[in-house]
Write a structure and sequence with these properties.
The chain is an alpha/beta fold. It has a single domain, classed as 3-Layer(aba) Sandwich (Rossmann fold), CATH 3.40.50. About 45% of the residues lie in helices and about 25% in strands. A seven-stranded mixed beta sheet has the order 3-2-1-4-5-7-6, with helices on both faces. Helix 2 packs antiparallel against helix 7, helix 3 crosses helix 4 and helix 7 packs antiparallel against helix 8. It is globular. The two termini are about 30 Å apart. It binds S-adenosylmethionine. The site of S-adenosylmethionine has 21 residues, from helix 1 and helix 4.
Length: about 220
């Protein structure tokens, strides 16, 4: 996974914008306004990658101390070029932070790619203070009839366009498969609550193509 992202790091932002037709920008703004309303003093943006969500959250929460963590150094290099600071190379499954040191943890399009969703959730909850907030932005599957059109896009068109943009078709074949197997909607809320979260809820985006999940540390 780390190697995949290292290979596409330079073209990740462009590919993202083209393949999502620019709507990912709106999703990040929505996510950042939710984080802003929590008024956290310390925020961890996990799997921060090229720093797009971290950048938008920093702007929405100017007084907060934000740390971006990712295990792929080439992705963090792109984030550094956007003048983001406090970037840490770290594996989400073994975070180098003390317990309860953040009031909010965000993760956009990252949890799905992790080797253990429950292991990563446990680490996120460990570094969250009691009552702290978790926000997950990720892809899901819409309901029929949009599902049929979306699956055609996901499995046929997206890998084709992505290989033209990044030269890495296999990474985007993987993307389609990972979206198919990732829990979404109520299923994801159940996963969150079974792993120590309370008040898990979700906001479907674009007919369910993506969703924002929020929950609290019990
Ligand atoms: C699709 S990118 C998302 C980047 C960014 N959050 C965004 O919204 O554009 C996924 C990121 O997750 C990171 N990642 C995947 N597994 C990870 C792990 N176990 N620990 C830390 N980062 C991880 C990858 O290196 C990559 O930068």
């Amino acid at each position: 996974m780390r190697d995949y992202f290292a290979r596409i790091a330079r073209r990740y932002d462009l590919a993202n914008t083209v393949l999502s037709l620019g709507v990912d920008v709106l999703w990040r703004v929505r996510a950042s306004s939710i984080v802003r309303d929590w008024k956290p003093a310390r925020i961890l943006d996990l799997a921060t990658g090229s720093g797009e969500l971290a950048r938008v959250i920093s702007r929405a929460c100017p007084g907060a101390f934000l740390v971006g963590a990712d295990f792929c150094e080439p992705m963090l290099r792109v984030a550094r070029e956007k003048h983001l600071s406090n970037l840490v190379v770290a594996d989400a499954l073994h975070l180098p932070f003390e317990a309860a040191c953040f009031e909010a943890v965000s993760v956009a399009f990252g949890l799905r790619n992790m080797a253990s969703w429950t292991g990563a959730l446990r680490e996120m909850l460990r570094v969250l203070s009691p009552g702290g907030h978790l926000l997950i932005l990720d892809f899901g599957l819409p309901k029929p009839p949009l599902l049929f059109v979306y699956r055609f896009y996901l499995h046929r068109l997206l890998p084709l366009f992505a290989s033209l943009l990044t030269g890495e078709r296999s990474a985007y074949d993987y993307l389609a498969d990972s979206i198919e197997s990732f829990p979404s909607g109520d299923q994801m809320c159940r996963l969150l609550e079974e792993n120590g979260c309370t008040n898990a809820r979700f906001i479907p985006l674009f007919g369910g193509i993506a969703a924002i999940y929020t929950a609290e540390r019990a």
